[in-house]
Design a protein that fits this description.
By secondary structure, the chain is mostly helical. It folds into two domains: 66 residues, no CATH class; 70 residues, no CATH class. It is 47% helix and 4% strand.
Length: 186
């Protein structure tokens, strides 16, 4: 995100400009379509491209390439791991790490996300069609520690440590059970 760049309302693909709807609620619809198991992948791509740019004349291969570009350049921004460099500025090769635990699910955690945004004075229902995905992502990733979503994340990441009372550990295990994510759904 660059504050001196305008928010994206159109994109260029194969020498043609297309309007694009990157409002957060539209991107959430796109992500929901992609999660569905009852829709064939070919149909998912068609639906996703329609949601993002509207009616078009793109064939399937073009739609796949366009979706890949939109995904990388506009939707997954800020989601990739930062590259690590040593003291001399050389790129440090990535070491195979265990798959990190998922701590937030945009669908399953919708009520906590909504409540957290209300805690900072933003009503997401009033922002539908207005707040862009980049704005939403930036706000979500920087929610204050006292919001319900941050508390849920802290509970999900909690590991028992020496010195904690057995009563506290039991309380936290119950909380983890309550807020646990199961296969993308709670």
């Amino acid at each position: 995100m660059r504050l001196n760049d305008p928010l994206t309302t159109s994109i260029f693909f194969e020498e043609k400009e297309y309007p694009i709807d990157l409002s957060f609620d539209n991107v959430l619809d796109v992500l929901e379509v992609l999660r569905r198991t009852d829709i064939l992948m070919t149909n998912k791509v068609e639906i996703v491209i329609y949601l993002l740019i509207g009616k078009n004349e793109l064939d399937f291969d073009q739609s796949i390439r366009l979706w890949d570009m939109i995904r990388k350049d506009y939707i997954e921004i800020g989601m990739e791991k930062p590259k690590k460099y040593d003291v001399k500025g050389n790129l440090v090769p990535e070491i195979e790490e265990e798959e990190s635990e998922q701590v937030i699910d945009l669908v399953a955690d919708a009520k906590y996300i909504y409540a957290s945004f209300r805690q900072i004075g933003i009503n997401l229902f009033h922002e539908q069609g207005k707040m862009q995905w980049e704005e939403f992502q930036a706000l979500l990733e920087s929610l204050p520690d006292d919001t319900i979503m941050q508390r849920v994340i802290q509970i999900r990441l909690w590991k028992p440590t020496k010195g904690e009372s057995s009563q506290y550990k039991e309380q936290m295990r119950k909380a983890q059970s309550r807020y646990r994510l199961l296969g993308g759904e709670r």
